[in-house]
Amino acid sequence: MTDAREPAADSSLRTTGGAPPDDGGTSDTGAPIPLLEPREGIPPVIADAAALDRVVAAFAAGSGPVAVDAERASGYRYGQRAYLVQLRREGAGTALIDPVACPDLSALGQVLSDAEWVLHAATQDLPCLREIGMVPTRLFDTELAGRLAGFPRVGLGAMVENVLGYVLEKGHSAVDWSTRPLPEPWLRYAALDVELLVDLRNALEKELDRQGKLEWALQEFEAIATAPPPPPRKDPWRRTSGMHKVRRRRQLAVVRELWETRDRIARRRDVSPGKVLPDSAIVEAALALPANVHALAALNGFGHRTGRRQLEQWQAAVDRAKALPESALPQQGQQVTGPPPPRAWADKDPAAAARLAAARAAVTALAERLAMPQENLVAPDAVRRLCWEPPRVVDPESVGAALAGYGARPWQVEQVAPALADVLRGVGA
Question: Pfam families of this UniProt entry (predicted)?
């Protein structure tokens, strides 16, 4: 079993890594230095085919890893499409690309297919990048690297400050990136987000290697890069906030009908569904089952700002749900595969509940020793499935095979299988 070493103190990780200014990332007093401007200034936004061709050529001629980031308009627009893509590579500089004006970036993705992409929280950006033709074959996730290395704060700003000694201005992270033209302060912020990503990657690689965790990180990065796109979520309306209050099937039908009506309107208007009708209003209407528009208007979320025509469309959705036959009403819970919710284990299978409690304690202790979050050491769902239905022969090999079947990487199997086998034997699997 590999014995990873403890993470270094933050101060020992600070490195200039070629980042501006030339004297390093801390002042004479040791305080972090604000990073206010990209080293080559704010690049122009790429918004036509000719300019995009020049960027493709420049990045194809560049060398080394490529820093990649994307900005979305969450909370403002429908869906999670990219509204700005930022890249930086040695020899090419920084590029800011408008994917609304240039919706097909597959040529750029192709010339970078052999390069390692450096992203922060890669799983957040990969879906919207995939939509515009940018799919990495290799990547380095600086957020995930920070988790594995034991950093308590893994946001980009915190990582750049703790590791490199610079302060990034983060005031524009939640703005409406669909705005056109994009204001200069936003573009400066966007360019700075990729300014130090490669430097951060290099420093974290050294730290992971020092802790004996670099191979673990590489396995995690490969798993992200090779994962297929997730399938569409079944019954997405069930994720409506406040659904726990809705108990009856007829009320569930109202939630479904209002959610689907709202989704159609939001998609057509290209706005966030929450701006059309808040989740809280959907739940209010489901609980009240209003008889008419007047009763609907009295509910929270359907106040005086809602016009008569809008109220009528929402009431029509409620009426459709109320008119459904019993056979067409949604069931209380989604049909799920695998074990039931852990809160029900004590009643359904007390022995399994005891195994799960002991397994969780063992994983917690091991994660603390390895200085990383429990969910990065092993997926909680894999532990639940293992404890609900243990292998017939309980030893590290069979437990490891079961974990691998649930998606655990080889390094995770190596670390947790012996401890979980001990737990299962001790509790009497």
Answer: DNA_pol_A_exo1, DNA_pol_A_exoN, HRDC
263 plus 171 within the same structural domain: no
Whether residues 387 and 279 share a domain: the answer is no
Residue 378 burial (CB count, 10 A): 26
- Name the token pair of 123: 């799983």
C-alpha 5/C-alpha 3 separation (Å) is 6
In three-state secondary structure terms, 401 is: helix
Domain count, the chain: 3
Q: Cα separations (Å) of 45 from 21, 58, 181, 197? A: 25, 15, 10, 20
Structure letter (DSSP) for residue 164: I
Looking at the fold, whether 360 and 280 belong to one and the same domain comes out as no
Residue 71, token pair as written in the block: 């900005």
| In-domain check, residue 410 | yes
**DSSP single-letter state for residue 26:** B
Give the CA-trace dihedral at 386, 391, 395, 398, to 10 degrees.
-90
Query: Which of the pair, 173 or 156, is modelled with greater confidence?
Result: 156
**In the listed set 226, 250, 267, which residue is the last one of a domain according to the structure?**
226
The three-class DSSP label of residue 87 is strand
- Domain housing 308: 236-328
Q: Is residue 1 part of a domain?
A: no
Is this structure's pTM higher than 0.85?
yes
- The CA distance from 222 to 290, in Å, is 52
Q: What is the pLDDT of residues 111-156, one digit of tens each?
A: 999 999 999 999 999 999 999 999 999 999 999 999 999 999 999 9
The answer to whether residues 342 and 356 touch, using CB atoms and an 8 Å cutoff, is: yes
Residues 169-200: b if buried by 16+ CB within 10 A, e if exposed? eeebeebbbbeeebeeebbbbbbbbbbbbbbb
Contacts of 181 (CB under 8 A, 6+ apart): 45
Q: What is the DSSP letter of 328?
A: G
What dihedral angle (degrees, nearest 10) is formed by the CA atoms of 18, 21, 25, 31? Answer: 180
CA 206 to CA 118: how far, in whole Å? 15
